[in-house]
Amino acid sequence: MLLKALAVLGRLGALTSSILVLGLNARFLTGSSWLRVFVIYIEVVAAVSVIAALIPPYPNFLYDSFWAAAWIVAAIFALVVQFGESNCYGLQPESPIRCAAYEAATAFAFLALLAWLGCAFLGGLRILALVANVGDRYWGRPLYLGATKDDETVPQEKLRKVDGIGNTHIARWFICYGLLGVTLLAVGIPILILYAAPSFALYLISNLVIPSNIRIELRNPANDSIGVGLESDVRVPAASAVTFSPMNVSFFFGDDSGDYVDRSIASVALPELNYGSETHFTIPEQRLKLEDIDAFAHFIEAVAFKPSFVLGGRARAKIMIGRISTCVDLDKKVEFTGFNSFPTLNITEMNIEDPDEDGYNLHATVAIDNPTRASATLGNVTLGLNVGNITLGNLEVTISNITTGVNIFPVQAKLNITNIQENMETILATEIPYLRNEEILASASVISIVYEGLHLEFWEQAFGRLEVTLKRPIRPLVKALLDGGFLGVGGSLVEGVLATILENVKSMSEDDLDDYIARLSELADRVLGLLETMDIL
Length: 537
Ligand SMILES: *[C@@H]1O[C@H](CO)[C@@H](O)[C@H](O)[C@H]1NC(C)=O
Ligand SMILES: *[C@@H]1O[C@H](CO)[C@@H](O)[C@H](O)[C@H]1NC(C)=O
Ligand SMILES: *[C@@H]1O[C@H](CO)[C@@H](O)[C@H](O)[C@H]1NC(C)=O
Hints:
Radius of gyration: 37 Å
Largest sheet: 10 strands, mixed
Bound molecules: 2-acetamido-2-deoxy-beta-D-glucopyranose
Number of helices: 13
Structural class: alpha+beta
Distance between the termini: 105 Å
Oligomer: single chain
């Protein structure tokens, strides 16, 4: 009677918890992404469990054990969902549902598990009680457990039975099932830890969405390496700890095409990393060693020109979570936003003047949007500025702590006026198709990269293979130039001339263009010559 009363209480607990879990997870279902399957599993178990909790007899060992097992999985999934889909540990900073809701859902999943486990335990007690013949007036006498009605050797009053399908059978073969249970546990638990846990961890890691609060810092470049550090707002859950044994991570270009897929572009040897309860995941600065120069150059190209690129990472990692240690072969690809040919690169100020003592005759301010989560310091970068095959001059820029978002920095250039003058016709011929769209074309490629007085050879070679070609509207560019004081009051005249030229180019047929280019370049040549004699250039 007492067992029955307790079991009813247990089932009521299971019922209530299931209803709450059902309700809470229904909210997560709308917002959930990659962990949707887990949420669906929890929902199904909770929904069926609501009805299942009402089905007698109470307790019912096999039946309650079955539900306890289903809830063990559901409770683990609830933990995973709480970790991966909420902002409790910084993994989903944009989650619209508060962390408390996830915590409650996990807590009730564990309560439901406990309730079913409790019932199963009571069911087990009932079987044990029968086996031990507790409270039986034939105490000490042989038992006829689970003997069937048609077993004539057994007197009717000694026939015993435990309510619920299969329980009587278990009681009858108690020793056998007991041994089987112990064996299964002894074999099952190591198998779970050795095989199931790592593959589950691997599944989670390979699907994990990298949160936006991760920041990567690249600094202290050397010939063929750069310092890399990582910071994030992702926290270790309270009262747990995570340790990564030392590992070598190699990175590769993950876009599924071409010859570069499996070639390591860089690698880093990580030391042992320990994260205690509630600490943030960070990695102090490590040396990232550049490896395959072709693959690296190809990778940089994707970063610069594509809207997004895929970076892959591989490592054999030994991870310890609490006391459990597991070895996983990590192989993860993550898609990042690329620079997409720099659509937002903007020249905000520009000034052409007499060469200063270092020979720079162009000073400009450039705004560039860094869409990646990395900040970088690379040193002084010298670029060759070209139109078609003609070199306009050298451009210099200091890449120093370029952070995520808009960065504004100065650029200076040595324009080779003589060369421009001599090749004016070729330059204009290249530009005319763009001028028709009121655009101007220029390309740049890296000539040298110097950090703290040292040439970064490897970087120079890799970047040197890259030519960035940009088209920009010409009017704002000229306006920036004139606003900068170029030509002083003559500015408005130049704007007028430019407008006329643009109109002419637009309306002109192909045949007339050649002639126009010739005349235009003659004019430009004379203007440049004039500017030079006037000491403006
Ligand atoms: C730079 O690195 C490359 C590739 O590792 C190497 O071949 C070269 O000798 C290095 N140069 C200097 C100056 O250290
Ligand atoms: C990492 O690679 C280096 C050099 O290849 C090797 O000596 C070291 O044992 C590796 N470390 C691990 C943890 O595999
Ligand atoms: C400018 O270009 C001309 C022709 O290519 C070249 O001879 C000259 O050395 C260049 N001047 C500078 C300062 O680079």
